[in-house]
Amino acid sequence: MVPHPKDDEYLNAAIPKRIKMFESIQAEQKTQRLSLSPDPIKVTLPDGTVKDAAKWQTTPFDVAKEISKNLANNALIARVNGVLWDMARPLEQDCELRIYKFEDDEGRDTFWHSSAHILGQSLEMGYGCMLCIGPCTTRGEGFYYDGFYGDLGLNDDHCKQIEAGALKAAGEKQPFERIEVTRDQALEMFSDNEFKVEIINDLPADKTITVYRCGPLVDLCRGPHIPNTSFVKAIACLKASSAYWRGNKARAILQRVYGISYPDQKSLKEYLLKLEEAKKYDHRILKVKQERFFRHESSPGSRFFLPHVARVYNKLMDFIRSQYRVRGYEEVISPNVFNMDLWVQSGHAANYKENMFILEIEKQEFGLKPMNCPGPCLVFKHRARGALSGLTRVRRFRQDDAHIFCRESQIKDEVREALKFIDYVYEIFGFTYDLKLSTRPENSLGETATWEKAESALKEALDEFGKPWQLNEGDGAFYGPKIDINVSDSLSRKFQCATLQLDFQLPNFFKLEYLAEDEAKIERPVVMIHRAILGSVERMFAILLMHYMGKWPFWLSPCQAIVCPVSKKSQAYAEKVKDEIYSKGFHVDADLTDRKIGKKVREAQLAQYNYILVVGEQEAETGQVSVRIRDKADLTTMSIEGLLERFSEDAKISFETFVKFPLKLP
Description:
By secondary structure, this protein is of the alpha+beta class. The protein has 21 helices and 31 strands. Mean pLDDT is 87; it is low at 286-290, 387-398 and 655-666.
């Protein structure tokens, strides 16, 4: 146990007051609910089954019990008419009901959000800290809780003690209970915590404020949560680090504690093993081992790509560019700087101006582009567009994005083809992925009928695509529904790279038009499709580096071969071999240092060269090379001609065949 100060005065003042207020408000709300008429309502399940229920009495848990005991025992959260809902919260009207378990994204995210409260309970009771925020992580792997500890700094030595407190809370089967409070009640309840007070004061005036309790922890939270803490059978504290309140380095310094949890010990052990494996192949570690890139204070937030990374970068560009050509895309290049009037017209200024680089040129404001979208709109608009092909595809390469302008009737076909494109590329990389259709959010723009037609087209495209997909209700962009694609690498870590987003607004903002098929009528595109596959190429490089664990496939490898002379006597021949391989377009290096051959081979293995070519006096006399293939100990003697044929076959198998895509062009 690591000795540490504990603010008992804060705990003795805050905890009993919050619990007393919570219980008082909870009792009032229960009494009020019991006075309401339990009118009959209908509950519709995903398969169309309709269940009878009682308003203000029947809960999702009651419905789950009626379906099966197994579902009731494993149900974590429900969705009622599109809104996530506690399993113990009574239903209020006729509704559509979905129930989620840990295997579902909604269930897993809720599980980890609730685990953050269990972690928060351990931190608050063990350290007397002021809790700030405790969400599940954006990567969808675990959770964290930020807290203010005064001068105390947490580190990994505190983790076991924090874990013990969390496991104690989980073992007590504490129910997660929910109440709604007024703003004044919330401010009184959390008056001892300046961070919670700030959050409350920043909430919109019409926002429903909810508070949850599990055991001694009473926390401001929108919820929902799992039924009780006993669902968490395994929990681990991963690390502790510093953070700034609301990400502002001028504000208070907080301590952030990360955790992970599962419904069983086996899953936790598997995750921790995977985490240790992942650490070995973190791109920040591999880049040091393999000298890939670096950063410099002269350009914060940027990376300098060294020659080996530049090779991968260019090969990715060659690959994706070849696919664009086969699939009928045309490349355009738009400026990096636009007058701010354009960003106002596109709507980007309203959302991003404070984070844009603004320049003043001849007393006018210009901005570096935060997104590519307006440029393609100007390209589309600069001349009359006919309806023979029905679309125009444009892209800007580094972000690997495309903008497809199409009519309402073409949405399904264009999205389906884009999904095939994404599937094709990710299969080559060895990624698995999942698909989610995100539908109309509360702050959406445009007509409901347009949204419904677009969402229907996306559903049809996904169904025709033939892979499983999930509905992510209410999480679309304000300008249109979207398909989110999350890839999983070789260690099952999830990343979002590809995206398909429908945009109803930009074509209207720019008044884009095209000639109807009879060329006598001018019409407007209904939608612009934003489409990315690689996403940020820099980020894709990092993901691929970790995915391949530094062992690049030959076609993409920056280290395809290295020639290692046994001694100075064979150096001239080594350089000749290198030059001949290089002249055929392959990436080849030569180790001409005075190190012993064993050391050269070992260094080449650590750098993950696909082929290590050892040459001595005998090889020089016969015009051959001794070939060691990565991860294989055996040496094979080959002629230079035979080696080059081998290289060509490797490149053909892993790249050229991918390019040959049978697609009927318009």
